[in-house]
Amino acid sequence: MSEIKHPQERTLIAVKPDGVQRRLVGQIMQRFEQRGFKLVGMKMLQVSEELLSQHYQELRRKPFYPSLLHYMTSGPIVVMVWEGHNVVRTSRIMVGDTNPAEAQAGTVRGDFSIHISRNVVHASDSVEGAQREIQLWFHRKELMDWDFALGGCVGTILYSWLCS
Ligand code: IDP
Ligand code: MG
């Protein structure tokens, strides 16, 4: 059996301060692991307004931007990079609508939140956006390019279609 390597898509997921304070980090991570995505980066930090203004550059002129800054700097966040087939689109579906009132049950926002100003989690909204955000939040060496230690197809059976 030979293993075919494909370039894998990556996305940025962050548990926002309300998610950390409500002890939801584990449950949110579990959903991504359970789905089959691969964790390649993770850290906890108190984010600066400078970094946030770059992250949310498209929202700087929105009326809610000052309250968004206040919310996002109200405590530490946990920021992660997840990898896998179609991870950007699939994570947006898993996270649910920006407004939790519209988010489907079964999504992170639909299960854990009720108001748009406290929606628990961030997920990149496009492949290009994800690349920009990953570069903004992580140094290259903070991202782990790991694989199944035993190589070949051992372990990849559950998580990948790359074995042939
Ligand atoms: P997204 O997080 O689903 O990608 P965006 O439109 O990119 O949604 O907005 C970024 C974040 O800004 C939202 O997750 C939410 O925290 C906040 N936000 C967006 N719209 C509103 C609003 O109308 N009132 C308050 N906060 C908002
Ligand atoms: Mg967004």
From TrEMBL:
Protein localization: Cell projection; Mitochondrion intermembrane space; Mitochondrion matrix
Enzyme class, first EC level, given as a word: transferase
Domain Nucleoside diphosphate kinase-like: 8-145
Topology relative to the membrane: Peripheral membrane protein
Alphabetized InterPro entries for the sequence: NDK-like_dom, NDK-like_dom_sf, Nucleoside_diP_kinase, Nucleoside_diP_kinase_AS
Active site: 122
UniProt keyword list: ATP-binding, Cell projection, Kinase, Magnesium, Metal-binding, Nucleotide metabolism, Nucleotide-binding, Transferase
GO terms for cellular component: cell projection; mitochondrial intermembrane space; mitochondrial matrix
PROSITE patterns cross-referenced by the UniProt entry: NDPK, NDPK_LIKE
Gene3D superfamilies: Nucleoside diphosphate kinase-like domain
Catalytic activity: a ribonucleoside 5'-diphosphate + ATP = a ribonucleoside 5'-triphosphate + ADP; a 2'-deoxyribonucleoside 5'-diphosphate + ATP = a 2'-deoxyribonucleoside 5'-triphosphate + ADP
HAMAP family to which the protein is assigned, alphabetical: NDP_kinase
Name of this protein: Nucleoside diphosphate kinase
SUPFAM superfamilies: Nucleoside diphosphate kinase, NDK
EC number of this enzyme: 2.7.4.6
An annotated Gene Ontology molecular function: ATP binding
Cofactor(s) recorded in Swiss-Prot or TrEMBL: Mg(2+)
Family note: Belongs to the NDK family.
GO terms, biological process: CTP biosynthetic process; GTP biosynthetic process; UTP biosynthetic process
Ligand binding (ATP): 16, 64, 92, 98, 109, 119
Pfam families, sorted: NDK (PF00334)
